[in-house]
Structures are given as C-alpha cells and as structure tokens.
Design brief:
This protein has 284 residues and is an alpha/beta fold. The protein is 57% helix and 8% strand. It has 10 helices and 6 strands. It has helices at residues 2-50, 54-65, 78-116, 137-150, 172-175, 189-194, 215-229, 245-251, 265-272, 277-283, and strands at residues 127-130, 160-163, 179-182, 202-205, 234-238, 255-257. Helix 1 packs across helix 2. It starts with a helix and ends with a helix.
Length: 284
C-alpha cells in the first residue's frame, strides 16, 4: 500500500508540474493575443481619426505601448487621444508588463527543468546515451564527448542527449558541450518521450557496472525497449560477458562491445564507424 501511495504521489506531483508549466505558457499566449488585438484596434483608430497610413499607425501603436515614444507620430484629435489613453495607457502597457513577467517566469522554469533533467526534448536524428557508469561518470562522459566531437564524421556532430539518474543536475563541463539531459531511466515511459527516442539516429546503451555480469540484464531490457521504440535506429550496447553478446543482438542491438571505461574510443569508434571497433577490441 505504501508503495502504491508513493507512486501515486509522484505521478500527481509530475502532473501538477506539467499543468503549471502549461498554465504559464497558456497565460502568456492569451496575453500576447489580447495585446495584439489592442495594438491592431489602436492602429485602426489612428488610421481613421488621424489619417495615418497602416505602417505609420502600427509604428505609433508599438512605440506608444513600449513607452519609447519617438514623437515622430502622435495623436492630434480628441478621439485619437482618448482611445490612446484607453487602449494603450489603460490596457496595453499593463498587459505588456504582465506578459513580460510570465515570459521571465517561463524562461526561469525552463532553465531549471533543463538543468535538472526534467525537460522534454524535441529532436530528430540525434544520439541518445542510456545509463551511465557507476563511478567517475562525469569524467567518462566528458572524455567520450570530446572524442565524439573530434571526429570528422557527420555522426560526431549530431546532438546528444544523456538519459540516466546519475546526476541531480547535469555537471557544468557537460553543459558546456551542449548535451541534453533527461533524469530518468529506461523503465520510465517519460524517458522515451523526453529523449525523443523514437526519432533518434543512434542509441547507445551503457553497462552500469563494467565488471558485474548482472549489468547485462539491465542492458538486455534497455535494448529491447529501445528497439521497440525505434525500429530503425543504430543501437550500440555494452556487454560484460562474452556469451551475452548474441542475446543482446537478438534483442535488437546492432553492435555489442566490451565496457572498457579507460578507453571510450572503442565506443566512439563503434558509433561513427560500426565494425571498426572489432579491430580495436581484439587488441585488448
């Protein structure tokens, strides 16, 4: 019962966050639509009462609403001035200030969600890394990304999303590499959506522990789920035990490599030139 309540509370919290984010976006959109209608109405009034051309009337409405007031155009008639006070001073400037406040709040919340891995990325033809090493994850991903970006292959220039629960917030070194972060594991349905897994070009599944054979079970489940979500992606998976390679390939992996943490070039070579990794692995 306690587990059920915990899952239910987590789901309700997620729904409230989503509803709050959508509420801010909806309020901002409504305010912008109202503001556009007010500016258009004021511009129409300026054309009718002041005899301005359309572009002149729009310019006057915009400069008045933003309180810039260049003075090159202004309302001269009594009806024009009255409508300017009502439409712009009374409503337009207030709505613009509210819209600016909502926009700042939205941007701050978006930044926090991206940093904490709760943002839903909309990407195509990208690379998704699933899972992470248990130890020195930041150093491993930093070295892997450096090797990937140094490649002259077009694959090495593709956007990258990291999906794991290793970091509470993506480390600064990785943020500087323009890497997207999703703080969820493969068993969470939101991970598939938030990483745009169905439209990824390459899916890389790492072994949590490079020495524990039980990691292969986690990789097997991840490969199966990834292939189900994206039938056409290139899936590269790590296998601790040699005898589990064929099982991972049958589950949907295109290439299976050993998890050699001190030499991420093996994994990178598999991503940018599938097949070449076998030569390097034979050396090890």
């Amino acid at each position: 019962m306690s587990l059920f309540l915990a899952i239910r509370a987590k789901r309700q919290s997620r729904m409230l966050k989503t509803s709050h984010r959508q509420g801010i976006g909806g309020q901002l959109l409504r305010l912008l639509m109202i503001l556009a209608c007010l500016l258009l109405l004021h511009a129409t009034a300026m054309m009718y009462f002041e005899g301005l051309e359309f572009d002149e009337a729009i310019w006057l409405s915009m400069t008045t609403a933003t309180t810039v007031g260049y003075g090159d155009y202004s309302a001269q008639t009594l009806p024009g001035r009255v409508l300017t006070v009502i439409l712009i001073y009374g409503a337009g400037i207030t709505i613009m200030a509210q819209a600016a406040a909502y926009y700042i709040e939205y941007r701050q919340e978006r930044h926090t969600m991206i940093l904490n891995g709760n943002w839903s990325w909309k990407m195509q033809d990208h690379i998704v890394f699933i899972n992470s090493p248990q130890e020195n994850a930041e150093a491993y991903f930093t070295k892997t990304m450096n090797q990937l970006r140094l490649s002259s292959s077009p694959v090495g220039k593709k956007p990258v999303i990291l999906a794991c629960t290793r970091f509470n917030a993506l480390p600064e070194k990785l943020r500087a590499m323009d890497i997207g972060y999703v703080n969820k594991d493969i068993t969470d349905p939101e991970m598939v959506e938030n990483t745009s897994l169905a439209s990824a070009a390459v899916i890389v599944i790492l072994s949590p522990d490079a020495y524990d054979p039980a990691s292969d079970s986690i990789s097997f489940d991840a490969v199966s789920r990834a292939r189900e979500s994206n039938p056409g992606a290139l899936i590269v998976a790590e296998s601790v035990r040699q005898e589990n390679r064929q099982r991972l390939i049958k589950a949907g992996a295109n290439h299976v490599v050993r998890p050699i943490r001190s030499y991420p070039e093996l994994l990178v070579r598999t991503i940018i030139a599938p097949g070449a990794e076998q030569i390097i692995e034979d050396l090890f």
